[in-house]
Amino acid sequence: MEKANEELQKNAQKVKQSKFWLGYHIAPPAGWLNDPNGLVFYKGEYHAFYQHYPYASQWGPMHWGHAKSKDLIHWEHLPVALAPEYDYEAGGCFSGSAVVSGDGMYLTYTGHNEQRDPKEVQCVAKSTDGIHFEKLAENPVISVPPAHGSPDFRDPKVWMQNDIWNMVVGSSKDGIGKAVLYRSKDLKDWEYTGVMVESDGTQGDMWECPDFFSLSEDVDVLIFSPMNMEGSKTRYMIGKMDQETGKFEAKNSGEIDYGIDFYAPQTFQDDQNRRILISWMNMWKKDMPEQTDGWAGALTIPRELSVENEKLIMKPVEEMKNLRTNQLVSTYEKEIKVADLCLEVEMVVSLDNSNKLGFTLSSEIGESIIVGYDTIEKQIITDRRGMLQGEQDLCQAHYQTENNEITLKAYIDRSSIELFVDGGKLVMTNRFYFKGDNITLSIEGEKSDIQEVSVWELKATM
C-alpha cells in the first residue's frame, strides 16, 4: 500500500489540472475509480471507500480508495485502505461494505483471483482508527459459494438486525441473478441462510452490489445492479423480509436512476437516521475522456432516500445547499455566460405552450447538451448528441404528472450532471465532456411557461 500511496501523491497535482476535474464530487486523486464501497458513519465522520486502481486510469487489480468528510460536501482523501496481498485476493479486493462494531470499523469485501477455485470469497478487515486496516487471520470468512449460487459470488453488504449480523451477497445460477443471505454473531463465522430473492427470469443473470435496508417497520428495500437485464442497470425492490426465514417478498420494483452514468449504488444510515445513497457516476464500456489526463471515474453526490406510494424517491442531501455562493439568476433570463461549470439550476415549468422545457449548455465551438422535459413525448431527457467527445446519445425516460407543472433541479459539475425531477421522483445522471470553452447556459421553453428559475454558482471543495 505504501507504493500505491506514493504513486497517488506523485500524480495528484497533475490530475487536478484536467479540464474535466470535478469541483465537489469524490474522484480518485489519480488513477481509476468505480464502485463505492464501505459507506459508513464512524466516530462523527462520514467515510466513503471505493474500488480503485492507483497505477493507471484503466481498471486493474482492485484496491480500496478512501475519503472522509464531516459534512458530506468537503471530502479529504486518505491513504489506500486495502490492497491485494494474499493468494485469495491476488486479482483484487473487490466491492463490499463497512460496519461499526464496538470501537472498531470492519470492512467486508470479496477477494478475487481468477486463477483460483473458487475465484471469489468473502473477507473481513478491521480498524480501530478508521484509516489503517488489518485483515483477519480467519480470511476468507466464507470460502465457497452456496449450492444455490455460482463462482460469481461477490459484493457483500453487511448490516445488524435483531442483534445478528446479516450479509447479502450477489450471485447467479443457471442464468438467474440472485441475492443470497448469511448470518453471523461475530463477523467471522457465517452461516448460510438461503436465497433472499432471485430474478423472475427477466431481471438479469447476475446481481452485483446488492444492498438491503429498512426505511420503516413496514418497508424494506433491496437494491442491486443486474447484469444483462435489457433496459436496466440498477434496480430497487420494495417489500418485506421475513426475519425468521430471510426471504424477501417484493411488492414493487423500478429503476433507481435513469441516466447512463450510474451503477453499483450503495447506501448507509447516518447519525440523523437518514438513509443516504452514493453511486459510481460512470458506466462500463463507455467513453471516458478524462483517462488521457491520468484519472477516471467519480461518485455521485449523496442522496437521501424515502418511499412514496411504493416507489423509491431520491433527493440531494440538505447539505448540498451549503455549496451555494453567488446566485447568478433569480428571475427569467434567456442566456447567461458561465465562468466555472459548478452550478445548481432549479426551474419550475408549466406544460402549456412549449415543446421542450429546461436548459442547454453550449460552448463557443457549437457543441451542446440539452436537459429537461419533452412535453410532446412525455420524456425527461439529457441529449448529448450535440457533443463532440464522450458519449453522443439521447438519454430519456418516460414521465407523466397529474399536475400541470414540473420542477427540475440539476447539479452540474464541469463534466457531470445529476437531474432530480419533482423532488426526486425521477433522477437522471450523466457525464459530458466539452472540447470548447466559454460556456453559455440557455433557458429552453416559452417565457410564459417558466414559472421560476434559479441558478447558483457552487464552490469547488475537492
UniProtKB/TrEMBL annotation:
It catalyses: Hydrolysis of terminal non-reducing beta-D-fructofuranoside residues in beta-D-fructofuranosides. One of its GO terms (biological process) is sucrose metabolic process. Pfam families: Glyco_hydro_32C, Glyco_hydro_32N. Its EC number is 3.2.1.26. Keywords: Carbohydrate metabolism, Cytoplasm, Glycosidase, Hydrolase. The keyword Hydrolase applies. It is found in: Cytoplasm. PANTHER family: BETA-FRUCTOSIDASE (PTHR43101:SF1). Belongs to the glycosyl hydrolase 32 family. This is Sucrose-6-phosphate hydrolase.
